[in-house]
Amino acid sequence: MIVYNKLVRDKIPQIIESTGKNAKFSILDDENYKQMLDKKLYEELEEYAEKRDINELADLVEVVYAIVEQQGYSIDEFENIRIKKKEKRGGFKERLLLLEVDEDKS
Question: Which tens digits make up the pLDDT trace of 79-93?
Fold first, then answer.
């Protein structure tokens, strides 16, 4: 028996069952779900950073969307927030690296 104790996608029980294996699952309460989503976010970020694979980036976005919904927002609301912030502060297309800011106003 391999112990995982990690948040998995909704269809994983059926996928495991289709291979003839048995697995145990539990349903998380709100607080544990928040914690496991945060843990999953870091896990997916590490996997993307290591592999630089578009599939890992898609996994990362899926976790972000789950966090958005868990916090009571819709994906559309989230996108509106993202777009407004981009309009106000810009995106990252210019590849700007801030080197320093001189705080002396003279």
Answer: 999 999 999 999 999
Q: Considering only the C-alpha atoms of the chain, give the largest distance between any 2 of them, rounded to a whole number of Å.
A: 73
User: pTM for the whole thing?
Assistant: 0.88
- Would you list the DSSP string of the chain? ---------TTHHHHHHHTT------PPPHHHHHHHHHHHHHHHHHHHHHH--HHHHHHHHHHHHHHHHHTT--HHHHHHHHHHHHHHH--STT------------
Is pLDDT at 104 greater than 90 in this prediction?
no
85-to-51, 80, 82 alpha-carbon distances in Å? 29, 8, 5
DSSP reduced 3-state for 100: coil
Structure tokens at 73: 């927002």
Whether the Cβ atoms of residue 55 and residue 39 lie closer than 8 Å to each other: no
